[in-house]
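Retro notes
What went well: the complex prediction finally ran end to end.
Inputs used:
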Amino acid sequence: MGVKAAVEIGVAIGFVLTLAACSDGATSGTVDGERIFNQFCFSCHMAGISGAPKPGDMADWAPRLAKGEALLLDVTRTGIVPAMPPMGMCLQCSDEELLAAIRFMSTPP
Ligand code: HEC
């Protein structure tokens, strides 16, 4: 094989490795729940608008956490009519990102 083909294959492999590194980062706990919270959930949850559970307020969160994280994630995805819009307004968020934001809010400060 010529030098040019070898270089092209090398570039292609490098590209695939870069993609693999990216998706690996997303699954290994580098999702920043606080950032998602500050960007999307903050507006309602910080002040407890319409009874939104406040971050770090364990009296607010304890009965909700008792339902289990999976259900909270489900509710977040669907939204709560009329109090909370679907995905908590973060329409592009992955399940992981929503869960990270929920964990950030429901953990004592
Ligand atoms: C427009 C306001 C608003 C935004 C934005 C918002 N929420 Fe909420 N959220 C609420 C309100 C109000 C409640 C309480 C509703 C109730 O219990 O009746 C709530 C409740 C919740 C609950 C508890 C659900 C349950 O079953 O008890 C979770 C979890 C939650 N929000 C996650 C999020 C996340 C994560 C975000 C950001 C990605 C977010 N919310 C953004 C208003 C909002």
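What we learned: Confidence is low (pLDDT under 50) at residues 16-28.
What to try next: split runs per interface for comparison.
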